[in-house]
Design brief:
Elements lengths: L1 H15 L3 H31 L6 H19 L1 H10 L6 H33 L3 H7 L2 H16 L3 H5 L5 E3 L4 E3 L2 H48 L13 H34 L6 H13 L3 H9 L1 H19 L3 H17 L1
């Protein structure tokens, strides 16, 4: 334990004695992640509420994910931004406990929501439509979402109930569980139930989904060549839109894994070493990857989903109008220039 404390003290000194350039780069990077996570997920939520056509079963899970990411951008990331700016933890112990609890809770919710979404896609694409409609309706979906949040509470609660406290990690720049709890089995508990099980579900379901969609595409191309069928479907029940939704969700999962794979690898190295032996820059990158995952879903949906993209444009249209009318002198200048040109001609 002394080695761990001395390591933390070394990180604290490095954190406090950063150069001005490093302080600015790290602070601005995290601030950008924070703003994009909050604004993007808020935009996605508004689009879901305003447009009835977006209120599908699958999108309920996506909005659940956006809500948890938005909470992370409010109750987790801002405290890290402030710490990066001043070089120390500037808040009291209550805020530290709040941040540590919320980060652990929201991460558990995100991974479990992605797992449930993978199951949803599996039943929609691989199994029959009648079975899908029987299992996935609005009522059962809301119950599933509530169950996910209740289950996610089991991630931080054992740590808190057992008397442990979250403490500020000056390299990761957020309040995390202490090393001692990890060695006593809590780390294995988190990895098994809140990382390994959801990942197994996600990989298994999307593997089956990918193979089914691939088979569907090959069959459709063959039918197009033979001119025997012109509308894409799997057994007459899967539309082009459903295939696109499936691909979008697959991209969401891949982006999540890209962000969280470095986090899992670093945590495993620390667990094996029984100490934080990596460089401070590695842990700062670790935190950036973890928090950046909260800002990706709105961007992915804005790029790959036409309905969300159109709703984004409608929501942001007033901002575009305001921007175009906020510089009247430019418009007057343009009109004067046009008038002068007309007179000369």
């Amino acid at each position: 334990m002394n080695a761990t404390l001395s390591t933390v003290e070394v990180f604290a000194q490095q954190f406090k004695n950063r150069t001005t350039a490093i302080r600015i780069v790290e602070s601005l990077s995290m601030l950008l992640i924070n703003i994009s996570a909050f604004a993007g997920n808020l935009l996605l939520g508004i689009a879901f509420v305003k447009n009835p056509n977006l209120r599908t079963i699958t999108n309920i899970y996506i909005v659940t994910l956006a809500f948890s990411d938005c909470l992370l951008s409010l109750l987790g990331i801002p405290f890290t931004v402030a710490s990066l700016i001043v070089g120390i933890w500037p808040f009291n112990n209550f805020v530290c406990q709040l941040q540590g609890f919320c980060i652990l809770l929201m991460c558990a919710i995100s991974l479990q929501t992605l797992a449930v979404t993978a199951v949803n896609r599996y039943f929609r694409v691989v199994r029959s439509r009648s079975l899908y409609l029987k299992i996935f309706n609005v009522k059962t979906t809301k119950i599933t979402v509530a169950f996910v949040w209740i289950m996610a509470l089991i991630a931080p609660l054992p740590y808190v109930v057992s008397g442990h406290e979250f403490s500020f990690h000056p390299a990761k720049v957020f309040c995390a569980h202490n090393a001692e709890s990890l060695y006593k089995g809590y780390g294995a508990y988190l990895v098994l139930f809140f990382v390994a099980v959801p990942l197994i579900i996600i990989i298994t379901c999307y593997t089956r989904v990918f193979l089914t969609v691939r088979k569907h595409n090959l069959n459709f191309r063959f039918r197009i060549r033979s001119r025997s069928q012109s509308k894409p479907s799997i057994d007459g029940c899967l539309s082009v839109e459903e295939v696109n939704v499936t691909y979008t969700l697959l991209v969401v999962v891949c982006a999540f894994l890209v962000c969280w794979t470095p986090v899992v690898v670093v945590d495993m190295i620390d667990f094996i070493n029984a100490d934080w032996k990596l460089k401070r820059q590695v842990y700062v990158s670790y935190t950036c990857f973890a928090f950046a995952s909260a800002s990706l879903n709105p961007v992915i949906y804005g790029i790959m989903n036409r309905s969300f993209r159109a709703e984004y444009a409608r929501i942001l249209a007033p901002l575009k109008w305001w921007s175009s009318h906020s510089h009247p002198e430019t418009n007057d200048g343009d009109e004067l220039k046009m008038t002068t040109t007309q007179r000369l001609s």
